[in-house]
Design goal:
heterodimer, A: 556 residues, six-stranded antiparallel β-sheet, B: 566 residues
Chain lengths: 556, 566
């Protein structure tokens, strides 16, 4: 048996299985996050709505990504922006890439890197499309989407045209996964509405207001097959998704029906969600209804925005959590026996607590390293809450963010003062999580509707141990999206899913980070690679990151 | 930072000025920046009324309403609270406060609703709000109590049934939920919310094929779910208040549409004129105006309005759809086809447009293309009874009664109160010589609208002329025919013709001949009087009718009754 190689950074997605041991621990005092945006060099000033108009995409954009674009071992930040002013798109709204230096400061390398996509940006997805070991960049836009190949020298090349992925529809969340099992990352893009800017929409007071989702018909999502030569082919029709219209905003990638293949979950705004699962004949079929995730547990189609795919209770299955509009609750779907999810929101501590908020970005992250992921949610209204005149453009849309501690067994409780600056009031949209300072706990980056970024460093004091894993698939796509890792620790099995494309318009650090509690050793690492093959790795070295390279373990 | 701030009374204040009157409460200062003049005028007027009589709960309440419906929520809440203090027995102020608070503070809303319901326990929408908010707050038992009460107060309430089905699901009782939702579907089969919930319940019970059908219906029926699901409930008394006080563009439009639906075009026109004065580029305002003018027979102004909308929003499919409708109504068929096609280019999934374009092409002689378009629309929108109805009609005209019957039957499941569909179904069944079923359909149509002369005539005619002896009922036919003729003072030759047929079926041929003599005389006199004014097709129709009368006259003179369809 070969040992796992020690390596670099890490983070995310944790779940666990084992004893029914309620864990209600939360920090006794002090905030678990501190806002280090300005000191980290991310406090740039931008305002999507500086022209004062009410261009609908302004109210829904944009996302962010945490990824190591230069392979220097720390996470960099990509921010998706856009500017529509006086009827035209402005280059001032180009996206920005910030490189993290060894001192933890971020430097704007947008221009030098060539990654500053000038389109009106919505979302971002990161994936190694050519298996060359560096992260490539897809941007969804209101207008043609864009794909940037990482040249491996700190720069990117826009290959949208040759790649054939410049779909002009209003793109939202996107993600890479190996649809056809050929070892290359394919690309799924959710599209939102057929919206055209026109005369102002007005609210009941006669004030200009953003259009709502009822304004316009939905559209279809798109699936691109990676041809392996830098080009992609739209296979939506042959894959069976082309005829399905919806108002897609969020996506999540996981094996939802337990057939060993990675499926696609699409969160639709005000309409039934979709769960594209493999039909066994090279096509996808929508199984959201049979899986119990099309509607909430009471038969209602909700305004779904953000998505979490992660184990959220103490079993080893992947669960779903969705953020929604106010007067709806956010919804927790727990995976059960028989391939069906059940709406477990009622009594979970996540329902009524969210009924006053409109949730967008969301992350499952184990803040206190106890082996149970917390849920962090950014909120912000899409319609004004108050009519107080004299407010700036965005303040009537602002709401406090939410943080929930995971008690296990499907129950959560809302964080109080310890949430710190993360729970401040703002107009939240994107959220990505990753271990920015490589200290073994997850941090957060959020974006706001006006285009600002916040960096929240996890400062929760804990002696709990951890292990971080970067999976490298040498037979399938190198990124190993969809791989599942089980970490055996004493009497517990922690489960992690490589699923960086979730939340809302955002892309998380793809590394897995497991909180181990008091355990100082791990007994076993079991990896189920995306193609179903299982490998066992020797278990060594906590409180550090490791590379898990396919082929370096032992067959199960 | 902790969870959101609690929202206990008193509410956080807003822009209060020290101009308190006898109530001892400051009147909210009129916001300094209001985008629409009419809204500002309305607020100033209601504020002045409060200043004149500051101890009047009604005036405070009205000012609250004016602020509330124009989304100045903080001011509205302040006014409602003052009104409540001045008149603690008035239920509307805590009720309206509750509706405002639902936007941001469910717990506080529940408190206000509870207080309102203590004062007014028999208002169904208030019980629905209580049920909904309790459910959101996870008080399932309390939600059930209020939904049950809402249903007692309004036995046809769909929202109460959906609420109770949710309660049943929360209690893991899918069978009960199914029963409740099936009742809801039978009462209101066109509501997407009902079908969404039904699909979920079928799925929970493991019946995926039933779930799939309901899913497709949910996606295509006419009454869509609103974001936030059951975010607001119809409340006629509150709607009436809004009608009186809502003056922003949105309310003017809503009020105009409501007035149009209620058959009050003048009121609609006034509202739309105000709207377009305040916001000349309001696309919904221009569309509503075009529809209003079209309804009033003013095609020229309707066209002008919709053309302006097209200029302002050339990428808006619904504008082109309305343009197509107006052009079709004014017999500009090729132009209408072009407009419909443009709408479908912009949005291929518009059910009315697909359906209307199918009809139009059929009408223009492109029967195959028209029927194909209507079929596609029918398959794509199984939940749209209007689309199914149109397809069934085209199939009937095209000589495909068997398929028409199937489509009519499907459409009637969605819209079981549709008299025209029963009548169309009866014609199709008659053509298939399924006379018993046809007469049954005629009876259903008549039962749904007994005062409708067309359904009365159709049923009476069928009962007399049916070739199947055991289905004929001369006595009933005679009674219905008599009723129609009395209503028209024996002056309508069609009803006289019907009466003669019924008299013959009842064996009274002498009377039948005399009745037809009267009918034939009226036709002759009419022809002589207005022949020049008739178009060739109208003239041909009259001639055919006259020939029918003559043939029946001959039959009855020879003592033979008239039969049809054998």
């Amino acid at each position: 048996m070969k040992s796992i190689a020690a390596v670099v950074p890490a983070l995310l997605v944790v779940a666990c299985a084992a004893p029914d041991r309620p864990d209600t621990t939360a920090p006794d005092s002090g905030a678990v996050f501190e806002n280090v945006t300005a000191e980290a060099g991310l406090g740039f000033v931008f305002d999507r709505a500086r022209g004062g108009g009410h261009f609908m995409p302004d109210s829904l954009a944009g996302g962010c990504a945490l990824f190591d674009y230069d392979n220097d071992g720390d996470l960099d930040v990509y921010v998706v922006l856009g500017l529509f002013e006086n009827g035209t798109f402005h280059a001032d709204g180009a996206n920005r890439l910030f490189r993290q230096g060894s001192d933890g400061m971020f430097i704007d390398v947008s221009a030098a890197s060539g990654a500053a996509d000038p389109g009106y940006g919505m979302g971002v997805a990161i994936g190694d499309i050519d298996n060359d070991g560096d992260a490539d960049l897809f941007v969804s836009n209101y207008g043609p989407d864009a794909l940037y190949r990482n040249n491996g020298d700190g720069t990117f090349t826009n290959i949208t045209e040759t790649a054939g992925v410049g779909d002009p529809r209003w793109g939202a969340s996107a993600g890479f996964f190996d649809f056809d099992g050929d070892g290359l990352l394919d690309l799924f893009v959710s599209n939102y509405l057929q919206y055209e800017p026109g005369p102002d929409v007005r609210d009941a007071a006669g004030r200009p207001e953003y259009a709502g989702p009822d304004c316009c018909p939905g559209t279809g999502d798109i699936l691109y097959r990676n041809n392996g030569d830098g080009t992609f082919r739209d296979v939506s029709r042959e894959a069976g998704i082309a005829g399905a219209r919806g108002k897609g905003l969020g996506v999540g990638f996981a094996d939802l029906d337990d057939d060993g293949r990675t499926d696609v979950f699409v969160a639709n705004d005000g309409e039934a969600n979709r769960a594209w699962v493999h039909d066994g004949n090279g096509r996808l079929r929508d199984a959201a209804g049979p899986l119990g995730v099309a509607l909430n547990g009471f038969g209602g189609a909700e305004a779904s925005m953000g998505v979490v795919v992660a184990g959220l209770n103490r079993d080893t299955r992947v669960d779903l959590f969705l953020t929604h509009l106010f007067q709806e609750t956010n919804t927790l779907y727990l995976a059960g026996d028989g391939g069906r999810f059940s709406d477990a929101t009622l009594g979970s501590g996540l329902g009524k607590q969210s009924a006053d908020s409109t949730g967008f970005g969301v992350a499952a992250l184990d803040i206190d390293r106890d082996g149970l992921p917390e849920l962090a949610i950014v909120n912000g209204r899409v319609l004004r809450a108050t009519g107080t005149p004299g407010d700036d453009h965005w303040s009537p849309y602002a709401e406090p963010n939410l943080l929930f501690w995971n008690e296990g067994n499907g129950r959560f409780h809302q964080a109080g003062d310890e949430c710190g600056p993360f729970c401040a009031t703002d107009v939240g949209r994107g959220l990505a999580t990753g271990d920015i300072d490589n200290d073994g706990d997850p941090d957060l980056v959020t974006t706001t509707a006006d285009g600002r970024v916040h960096l929240f460093r996890n400062v929760h004091a804990t002696d709990a141990h951890w292990i971080g894993l970067k999976l490298i698939d040498t037979r399938g796509p190198r990124d190993a999206n969809g791989a599942v890792v089980e970490v055996q620790v004493a009497d517990r099995t922690l489960t992690g899913l490589v699923a960086p494309h979730q939340s809302y318009l955002s892309s998380n650090d793809p590394r897995l980070l497991f909180g181990l509690g008091a355990a100082e050793t791990i007994d076993r690492l079991r990896v189920r690679w995306p193609d179903g093959e299982v490998e066992i790795f020797d278990a060594t070295g906590v409180d550090r990151y490791h590379d898990l390279v396919r082929g370096e373990g032992n067959p199960a | 930072m902790t969870s959101r701030p609690s929202f206990a009374v008193p509410f956080i204040g807003i822009l209060l000025v020290a101009c308190s009157g006898e109530s001892g409460v400051a009147v909210p200062k009129v916001p300094s920046k209001i985008d629409e003049v009419l809204v500002e005028q309305k607020i100033r007027e209601a504020t002045a009324a409060v200043r004149e009589q500051p101890d009047s709960a009604d005036r405070w309440g009205r000012l609250g309403v004016v602020y509330d419906i124009h989304r100045f929520f903080d001011q509205a809440l302040d006014c409602y609270e003052t009104a409540s203090r001045l008149d603690p027995q008035e239920w509307r102020w805590p009720y309206f406060s509750g509706i405002v608070l639902r936007e941001t503070h469910q717990g506080a809303a529940l408190d206000r609703f509870t207080r309102a319901a203590e004062l007014k326990p028999d208002h169904p929408p208030l019980q629905l709000y209580l049920g909904f908010t309790h459910f959101l707050e996870e008080n399932v038992d309390a939600a059930e109590t209020h939904y049950t009460r809402a249903l007692e107060l309004d036995p046809f309430s769909i929202n109460a049934r959906i609420g109770l089905a949710r309660v049943a699901l929360a209690e893991q009782d899918a069978d009960r939920a199914l029963e409740i939702l099936q009742q809801a579907a039978s009462i209101s089969p066109q509501e997407a919310a009902v079908h969404h919930h039904l699909s979920h319940v079928h799925s929970v019970r493991g019946d995926e094929s039933a779930a799939e059908l309901e899913r497709r219906l949910a996606e295509t029926v006419a009454i869509k779910m609103q974001p936030g699901e059951m975010a607001s409930f119809p409340d006629p008394p509150r709607d009436e208040v809004i009608l009186q006080e809502g003056v922003s563009s949105n309310w003017l439009l809503a009020n105009a549409n409501r007035a149009l639906a209620a058959g009050r075009p003048q009121e609609a026109q006034q509202a739309l004129e105000k709207l377009l004065k305040a916001n000349p580029e309001s696309i919904p305002g221009l569309i509503a105006s075009a529809r209003m003018f079209l309804g009033a027979g003013d095609a020229q102004r309707a066209t002008a309005m919709i053309q302006r909308a097209v200029t302002l929003a050339p990428g808006d499919a619904s504008v082109h759809a309305d343009l197509g409708m107006i052009l079709a109504r004014t017999n500009q068929f090729p132009e209408a086809v072009e407009a419909y096609r443009r709408a479908l280019e912009l949005d291929p999934d518009l059910p009315e447009v697909q359906s209307n374009l199918g009809s139009l092409l059929f009408q223009m002689g492109q029967t195959d293309a028209g029927l194909e378009m209507a079929r596609r629309a029918g398959a794509r929108f199984p939940g749209r009874s209007d689309v199914q109805h149109n397809l069934a009609n085209l199939l009937l005209i095209d000589g495909q009664p068997s398929e028409a019957v199937n489509v009519f039957a499907f459409a009637l499941r969605l819209d079981p109160g549709n008299v025209e569909m029963y009548a169309g179904m009866a014609i199709a069944l008659w053509e298939l010589q399924r006379y018993a079923d046809a007469i049954d359909a005629y009876r259903k149509a008549h039962r749904l609208n007994p005062s409708n002369p067309t359904t009365t005539r159709d049923l009476a005619w069928a009962l007399s002329v049916c070739p199947q002896a055991d289905l004929r009922d001369g006595a009933t036919s005679l009674q219905l025919a008599q009723q129609l003729n009395e209503g028209t003072q024996f002056s309508d030759p069609r009803y006289l013709d019907l009466l003669a047929v019924a008299q013959a079926e009842s064996g009274d041929f002498t009377k039948a001949v005399a009745t037809l003599d009267s009918a034939m005389k009226i036709v002759r006199d009419t022809m002589a009087r207005i022949a020049q004014q008739l178009s060739p097709p109208q003239r041909e129709q009259m001639m055919l009718f006259a020939e029918g009368l003559r043939q029946r006259h001959e039959l009855f003179r020879s003592g033979r009754p008239y039969r049809e369809g054998s």
